[in-house]
Amino acid sequence: MWPAAPALQQPLILRQRWLDLTFLHWAVEPAAVAHFFPPGTRPDTFEGRTYVGLVPFRMVDTGLPHGPGVPYFGSFLETNIRLYSIDETGRRGVVFLSLDANRLAVVAAARTVFGLPYRWARMSHARDGNHHTYTSRLRGIESAVGVSLGERLPVGPLEDFLTARWGLHIERAGRTWYLPNEHPPWILHSATLTSLEADALLKSVGLVPPGRPPDHVAFSAGVPAAFGLPSGQPSPGR
Description:
This protein has a single domain, classed as Acetoacetate decarboxylase-like (Beta Barrel), CATH 2.40.400. The protein has 4 helices and 14 strands. It is mostly beta strands.
């Protein structure tokens, strides 16, 4: 993995800040999730396993590359469920199974423009000292995450694998697209899980809940991020 982002080619299309992120990850067998991946991509692996990620956070100041963020609609809560991908050219990225947000207009725009699997949900985030809680309710599906923060976490190969992902893969209009991004390296903290209600949320995207606590838990105060133009290639067999 590259712990530092490759420079994006101009022009940039979007920038935003990702704040108060909790990263929950479960190791799984690649074959168990391979059917979720767009054509031309496959599960990326670390020591023979790939990972399912559940990441609640705050999105802030989304907007064009220059100027202020979009008022109101540019800041919202999000929880995503994600997998880790690599394509035939060696580009590593993320495949999103869902991105739940509490701004209906954002959900509609992201689904229409980028084809991303956004869903509208009622969500909350609260902080009490070093404790963060996130809740979400989506069509009767409730989820909750609570974590207490610890010391700064040394970033090793696994942390780089899980967080130094410089793009996303998505299938749209008969192509598998790669949307690149850049941001500073993460500053991570260890985190102790104090509550977790996520089985129904994982089932809602077709995953089998692992039935155990996450194998890796971490927290970051956040980073600014920017996105470049997507590139695509025809999907095999199309």
